[in-house]
Hints:
Elements: E1 9-13, H1 18-29, E2 33-38, H2 41-53, E3 59-62, H3 68-82, E4 87-90, H4 105-133, E5 136-142, H5 144-147, H6 153-172, E6 180-185, H7 191-197, H8 203-212, H9 223-234, E7 245-247
Parallel strand pairs: 1-2, 1-4, 2-3, 4-5, 5-6, 6-7
Helix pairs in contact: 1-9, 3-4, 4-6
Amino acid sequence: MDLGLKDKIIIVTGGAKGIGAAITAVLAQEGAIPVIIGRSGDDNLEQLARIREAGGKGEHVVAELTDPAACKQAVEAVVAQHGRIDGLINNAGINDGIGLETGSYEAFMQSLHRNLVHYYLVAHHALPFLKTSKGAIVNITSKTAETGQGNTSAYAAANGGRNALTREWAVELLPFSIRVNAIVVAESWTPLYENWINTFEDKEAKLASIVERIPLEKRMTHPEEIAQMAVFLLSEKSSHTTGQLIHVDGGYVHLDRSLI
């Protein structure tokens, strides 16, 4: 299916690894020009090399998105290079395990900057250009906002904020025909997920216990499956979809696993 994204300039925060890398790859396959915003130039360039080897196009901007000034500078860099922004996928973040008992004010606030504040700031600075292009916004979020996980208060709060901002922006941006949706991720195998699994003494048993509870096919969601939904939501093929929190999770959050 041609999603009509050829040569569209799409910002993808954290677009060099994991789900973000899958998104930038699928965007490039659709003929779009993903612009990776990430802190590691080496990681950005490695992903761009993969995209270009596959025949696609892409660019990148190095930015530490926990720095509010860097969010503004990154958007300005994209506009200086391309003159427009046709879409935004907020994706960068990490489940950093800042809990209630073991956390602190400082760690909690740092986590919000890692996982939520830059969602707002990048969208804020990109908005004038999205209004011109009538571009769309997709926020990647996590089940932790709905299910809880334990010992990750800040990350859960950040994802609750991502969900709320999705609905709030969808309302605020109606006059500009800017659609805003979110994809809620549950269990998807990424480098960060692998790092978390490796913290357990019996990592194989822990992983097996998680996979066993995923209703559809008892397997993890592939990053590419999340990417396909993200790219669809950016496109005009989803032209009357806004304010939605779409779970791409094999039924993990909503199906009754006692029946599996």
